[in-house]
Specification:
The chain is of the alpha/beta class. The chain has 14 helices and ten strands. Helix 9 links the parallel strand 7 and strand 8. It binds pyridoxal-5'-phosphate.
């Protein structure tokens, strides 16, 4: 298989169509002027059902694999307000597959609405079976999911587990490899920089791999939303090995390919930073787009941050990937109101 290209090897993976077509790219005129760059937004918040988001692209490959294996139940794990989990529940509903969602308590002392509204409410509406998991590391969360999958199997069901700790190959990254191609086909001129949130790392890794393949002059920068930069780099390097293996090009991605920024990550996962609040505010008031406090506000904050640090030169052509997150927006009402009050 090594003689075949990465593109062909990815095309050979089983994929369940979820997106209706390419997502839109639009220029942000007021923010371009304000920041002194040529700034564009890719509307992956419109990808897929139930408020959409980046995970729809990733789930095309997980559902493809699940259906190919004859699964009738899909199990997924994520934070209580995970968008990945909500999209899994929505897509499973549309495919007549049962969804089991495991909600990990990653955020300390959240407000009551964190458990009641946003994606938790949507998971109920979408008919998913909801289970809770006291935060541990990803390995523990995956182990609990596999243990439940075993129980379901003993009851005669055919489960497929979407694990995030490294047991399953990073299939989701293939969705963003494809997205890189889509971006290149959509744009008349190459982007200098692409900014995307980096959490599980699948979107960041896939875009990095795809841009290296289709347009190597474009630098993809991941803005940390889940863990600090040094830990995220280790994670991406681990995933890169698995991705290289998956696409059968063992030396394709390496450490030097990853550009990571964590200037808006503090005070931690699921907690609104001032920089993220400012980014969310600026996007709403200048362009009318809504970002979410956990992922897209922190990823968009990278643009003013990198400009200030001189890592994006003025005049650059920059694409921000709006990865969604809107299903969770109202679950963070208290943090948002506190930000506006301050
Ligand atoms: C809205 C949103 N943006 C970005 C991310 C991060 O993407 P990834 O997990 O591919 O790194 C997530 C992850 O859950 C998300 O829900």
């Amino acid at each position: 298989m090594r003689n075949t290209s990465i593109e062909d090897n990815i095309a050979n993976l089983t994929r369940q169509g979820i997106l209706d077509g390419p997502t839109r790219i639009k220029r942000l005129n007021q923010l371009s002027e304000r920041m002194g760059i040529d700034l564009w937004i890719k509307r992956d918040d419109e990808a897929g059902p139930s408020f959409g988001g980046n995970k729809s692209r990733q789930l095309e490959y997980y559902f493809g694999a699940a259906i190919a294996q004859g699964a009738d139940t899909i199990l997924v794990t994520g934070a209580v307000q995970s968008n990945f989990v909500r999209l899994t529940a929505a897509i499973a509903a549309s495919l007549n597959i049962k969804a089991v969602v495991q909600l990990e308590e990653r955020v300390e002392n959240p407000e009551p609405q964190y458990y009641e509204t946003g994606n938790v409410l949507l998971n109920q509406l979408l008919g998913a079976e909801i289970r809770y998991f006291k935060d541990g590391n990803s390995e523990d969360a995956d182990a609990a999911l596999y243990a439940y999958a075993d129980q379901l199997q003993q009851q005669g069901r055919r489960p497929y587990v979407i694990a995030l700790s490294g047991k399953t190959p990073p299939l989701g990254a293939c969705g963003y490899f494809q997205c890189a191609k889509e971006i290149v086909e959509q744009s008349e001129q190459a982007f200098d920089h692409i900014i995307v949130g980096t959490g599980s790392g699948a979107s960041h890794l896939g875009l990095t791999a795809g841009m290296k393949y289709y347009c190597p002059t474009t630098k993809v920068i991941g803005s940390c939303v889940r863990r600090p930069k040094s830990e995220q780099r280790q994670r991406l390097n681990r995933m890169a090995q698995q991705f290289n293996h998956l696409v059968d090009h063992p030396n394709y991605l390496n450490d030097a390919d990853f550009h990571i920024w964590d200037g808006a990550f503090s005070p931690g996962y699921g907690k609104l930073s001032d920089k993220a609040g400012d980014a969310l505010n600026m996007m709403a008031r200048k362009e009318g787009f809504i970002l979410d406090p956990v992922y897209t506000a922190k990823s968009f904050a990278a643009i003013p941050g990198l400009l200030t640090e001189g890592l994006i030169p003025s005049g650059s052509r920059v694409l921000f990937i709006h990865t969604g997150g809107l299903g969770a927006f109202f679950a963070y009402q208290k943090d948002l109101l506190a930000y506006f009050k301050a």
